[in-house]
Design a protein that fits this description.
By secondary structure, this protein is of the alpha/beta class. 35% of the residues lie in helices and 19% in strands. Among the domains are: 65 residues, no CATH class; 143 residues, Alpha-D-Glucose-1,6-Bisphosphate, subunit A, domain 3 (Alpha-D-Glucose-1,6-Bisphosphate, Chain A, domain 3), CATH 3.40.120.10; 92 residues, Alpha-D-Glucose-1,6-Bisphosphate, Chain A, domain 3, CATH 3.40.120; 145 residues. Strands 16, 17, 18, 19, 20, 21, 22 and 23 form an eight-stranded antiparallel sheet that branches. The protein has a six-stranded mixed sheet with strand order 1-5-4-2-3-6, sandwiched between helices. The radius of gyration is 26 Å and the shape is globular.
């Protein structure tokens, strides 16, 4: 459907709004870009008000509509002028609004201050400085770093320095044209409603021409006026405190009777192949692993230095096809024990292992999560803690298998909505009740192994993986062996994710219509499997497909629907051509940034390895039937 051209009044109003924005913009680059659009648009409207060149007006309108919305992930978007892009003026405005909300919500915010970090993307440092000068200009103390800061360091600093908020200027693993702004609140956790809603509403109401005070302080200098806010610059001392926190190993304390078997004398160091993906975590990972034990370090040199152009990858996301090719080639050539990669801001970790035939396999996030939950629960049994329940968490689109592992260790398992803001929001509730946080993860290779960082942390996770490798070796196993043992004991889990991209101007409407139809009339069967249960997270209700046996879902409402499926009880074969005692699970939700449906699929086999295709002690090598069924489910949905 073609949108009508704007009326002359709309065009004139747009031009005036653009002028107001431009006149308040302190960045000469985006001022010049917006001026060029304004001149072209003004020339396109003649003295009678007729639009002679709608393309020029469309280009100007694209700088303003739709504006980047502020949500629970903060801001993320393409660089450029106007509120529809990431730029210094937008960050100045959102920071000013954030500070107002912060003052209202946190009484001692001015004294506690805000810590601000940035990644190596082109433009991140400038946005971080605007953030700091806006915060200081509002009379609030500022903490910054003397260089790039991986996201986990900023999240750590928020707790360590007891700040009222924290900001990381990062677009994580998005393409190089993107910039981002991530916000933590006074509890050290990413913001959740209603804080994000209050900031978003105030941002929309802020006039385009509003002038915002910017501090002229010199970072690190002692204020001449005691009433002025301080601006502290942190360096090696804070970095050292972070490294000490994630390598302390406090969760693995044992009595002498419970000590781990000693490693045989002369055991070689663990061979680690690593890629920083042109990000900021490289030195951190190496320093942390060297403190954890003997390693033989092999790094992908072409991806070692921080580089906002990301020249060797099409998409700087470890989960993208081809992103780990150079790492896997290095791992093969040096016969590494493990291959790991952190994403550009260092908060996620990818892991690859050689299988029983020496072929390198990139693990899914749920597989890494399974390994680490089992290891952390095992270690927590040896710690001297009293009272409360141990608990582990993952998200509603992650694997269900950890529930069995937690039960075996006498721990609790819960799932939250997607995102670490929800994982740690729930973790803090449990901790307030006296329970003990052990581990949290989400399927998108994000893991939280320490309560000292209330977010995902790829650097701390690398430390845990190395400890796990050493633990397995001391028991005569590889990590691949250990993963198979877990599957044999608790049941095989296979997870996959696919996306359904919708095109056209009405794509979002069609996407929501598809979800509504699936929610209202779920299929009785799908790809040869019987649908046994529907989980409607928008209605916050679980039920059979006929509406019976309904029960509440105790989570905030969200646009997610899940289907549980199983083979017919009479033994009919599935689409894979076999009878299966396991169950299948589908989660479907819309993307938060584009007209795309995200589909998560899981096969969950029965405990004890009782599957037709699990044999020879290597369930992972015999998953063809389940893979075919998952593919059939995906095709049936698409």
């Amino acid at each position: 459907m073609t949108q009508p051209n704007p009326s002359p009044i709309e065009s004139a109003a747009l031009i005036e709004t653009a002028k107001a924005w431009r006149n308040a913009d302190l960045d000469p680059v985006t001022r010049a870009q917006l001026s060029a659009h304004i001149e072209a648009a003004s020339a396109a409207v003649d003295h009678n008000g007729a639009d002679r060149e709608p393309e020029a007006l469309a280009a100007l309108r694209a700088c303003f509509e739709p504006p980047i919305g502020f949500g629970t992930a903060g801001l993320r978007g393409l660089k450029g002028p106007g509120p529809a892009h990431m730029n210094q003026r937008l960050i100045e405005r959102v920071t000013a609004v954030m500070v107002d909300v912060l003052r209202a919500e946190v009484p001692d915010a001015a004294q506690r201050g805000v810590v601000i970090g940035y990644d190596a993307r082109h433009g991140s440092k400038a946005l971080a400085e605007v953030t700091a000068r806006t915060v200081a200009g509002a009379g609030i103390n500022v903490h910054t770093f003397d260089d790039y800061a991986p996201t986990p360091l900023v999240a750590f600093a928020a707790l360590e320095l007891n700040t009222a908020a924290a900001v990381v200027v990062t677009a994580s693993h998005n393409p190089p044209e993107y910039l981002g702004y991530k916000l933590y609140w006074a509890d050290g956790v990413q913001i959740v409603p209603p804080i994000d809603q209050r900031i978003a509403q105030a941002l929309r109401a802020l006039p385009a021409d509003v002038r915002i005070t910017q501090s002229t302080q010199t970072p690190g200098a002692v204020p001449t006026d005691p009433s002025m806010p301080s601006w502290q610059v942190h360096g090696e001392a804070l970095r050292e405190r972070y490294l000490a926190a994630i390598t302390s190993g406090q969760a693995a304390q044992r009595t002498p009777a419970q000590a781990e078997p000693s490693a045989p004398t002369g055991v070689p160091p663990i061979r680690v192949a690593y890629s920083a993906m042109h990000g900021v975590a490289g030195d951190w990972v190496k320093r942390a692993l060297e403190r954890t034990g003997a390693i033989a370090w092999h790094e992908v040199q072409s991806q070692a230095a921080p580089d906002g152009d990301f020249p060797t990858v099409n998409f700087p996301n470890p989960e993208e096809p081809g992103a780990l090719d150079e790492l896997l080639a290095l791992a093969q050539s040096v016969q590494a024990d493990i291959a790991i990669a952190t994403d550009p801001d260092g908060d996620r970790l990818a892991l690859a292992l050689p299988d029983s035939n020496g072929q390198w396999q990139v693990l899914m996030g749920d597989q890494i999560g399974l390994l680490l939950i089992d290891y952390r629960l095992q270690q927590s049994q040896y710690t001297d803690q009293s009272g409360g329940r141990s608990f582990v968490l993952n998200t509603v689109v992650s694997s269900r298998l950890p529930a069995r592992v937690a039960t075996a260790y006498g721990a609790d398992f819960e799932q939250t909505l997607t995102g670490f803001k929800w994982l740690w929001h729930r973790a803090l509730q449990r901790q307030a009740d006296g329970d003990r946080f052990v581990f949290a993860y989400e399927d998108a290779i994000g893991f939280s192994p320490t309560p000292r960082v209330r977010d995902k942390d790829g650097i701390a996770t690398a430390v845990e993986v190395l400890r796990l490798v050493r633990h397995a070796q001391q028991h005569g196993m590889t990590l691949y062996d250990r993963l198979n043992v877990l599957y044999q004991h608790y049941g095989l889990s296979i997870t996959r994710q696919v996306s359904l991209q919708l095109d056209g101007e009405d794509a979002t409407e069609r996407m929501n219509a598809k979800l509504k139809a699936l929610r209202q009339t779920p299929p009785a069967t799908l790809a040869g499997l019987k649908v046994t249960r529907v989980h409607d997270y928008l209605a916050a209700e679980r039920r059979n497909i006929d509406g019976t046996q309904a029960e509440a879902i105790g989570l905030p409402a969200t646009n997610l629907i899940q289907l549980d499926l199983a083979a017919e009880a009479n033994g009919d074969s599935t689409a894979s051509g076999r009878t299966d005692a396991g169950t299948y699970h589908i989660s479907i939700r819309p993307s938060g940034t584009e007209p795309k449906l995200k589909i998560y699929l899981e096969y969950l086999g029965p405990p004890g390895g009782a599957t037709d295709d699990s044999h020879d002690g290597d369930p992972l090598a015999h998953t063809a039937a389940q893979e075919r069924q998952l593919q059939a489910l995906a095709e049936a949905l698409m």
